Amino acid sequence: GAVVSQHPSRVICKSGTSVKIECRSLDFQATTMFWYRQFPKQSLMLMATSNEGSKATYEQGVEKDKFLINHASLTLSTLTVTSAHPEDSSFYICSARDNRVMNTEAFFGQGTRLTVV
Amino acid sequence: AQTVTQSQPEMSVQEAETVTLSCTYDTSESNYYLFWYKQPPSRQMILVIRQEAYKQQNATENRFSVNFQKAAKSFSLKISDSQLGDTAMYFCAFSIGGSQGNLIFGKGTKLSVKP
Q1: Rg (CA), chain A
Q2: Which of B71, B75, B70 is closest to B20 using CA atoms?
Q3: Rounded to whole angstroms, how far apart are CA atoms A62 and A96?
Q4: CB distance A49–B47 less than 8 Å?
Q5: How far apart are CA A39 and CA A43, in angstroms?
Q6: Do B100 and A108 touch (CB under 8 A)?
Q7: What is the pLDDT of residue A77?
Q8: Residue A74 and residue B100: Cα distance in Å, rounded?
Q9: B71, B40, B70, B64: which is closest to B50 by C-alpha?
Q10: CA distance B22 to A45
Q11: Burial category of A47 from C-beta neighbours within 10 Å (exposed 0-12, middle 13-18, buried 19 and up)
Q12: Half-sphere exposure of residue A30: CA atoms within 13 angstroms, side-chain side
């Protein structure tokens, strides 16, 4: 299947700093990327949907000024957690698909474990 | 709004036996997709099987099959000949037709396959 690479896999940052997470589609063009958050022993919750070249659409309750999403190219989307706090510690997962291809699924990255100390 | 319910937080099965994981969903949409994802300890999300709502035939992938009951809004996963490598969290998920990426997940079922 298609490959989506997410980096870094783990990051520890100090409270108040910002962290950038990258999501790359390696062998297809991702017109749409999705960012999910997963708390320990819980399910995945969609945070936002980004379309290449457009502003991201955020789910209710997700602060767009805190979780900045950039999808400037067909192979790269970034999620920046700004002014991180311990409550932002979580597992963040991206997925990507090519909306121009009929009946194709979305492929997931490996996830990023963020710890804010 | 769409919801996905998995009523079994944990299940266990003996190696080589068969296990069925339950999932129900609620939607007013007529065109949608249903998925089962596996999340092993590595936390990589792996697509196990996918079902298009307009297809009456149940999807199958090797040892994995679904029982899709559209009227009852039920989508259970059957794993035959369970293997130790099947041990993982299993999430049932829903997406509106055409998007297939904006997924709504159930809370998951932790499956343990015992030797």
Answers
A1: 14
A2: B75
A3: 20
A4: no
A5: 7
A6: no
A7: 94
A8: 18
A9: B64
A10: 20
A11: buried
A12: 32
> Counting one residue from A and one from B, how many pairs have CB atoms under 8 Å apart?
52
**Which amino acid, A97?**
R
Interface of A with B in 17-76 (CB under 8 A): 32, 34, 36, 38, 42-46, 49
For residue A47, give the nearest of A72, A28, A23, A12 by alpha carbon: A23
- Tens-place pLDDT, residues A47-103: 999 988 888 999 999 999 999 999 989 899 999 999 999 999 999 999 998 777 776
Q: Tell me, what DSSP letter sits at residue B99? A: T
B47 contacts in A (CB within 8 Å)? 1, 105
Of B34, B27, B37, whose CA–CA distance to B52 is shortest? B34
What token pair was written down for B34? 């249903």
B7: which 2 tokens? 């009523």
Cβ-Cβ contacts under 8 Å for A46 (sequence gap 6 or more)? A34, A35, A36, A59, B102, B103, B104
Q: Which residue of A has its CA nearest to B107?
A: A43
Most confident segment among A46-55, A91-100, B27-36, B62-71: B62-71
Give the residue among A90, A79, A24, A107 at the shortest CA–CA distance from B45: A107
Helix, strand, coil shares, percent, chain A, to 5: 5, 50, 45
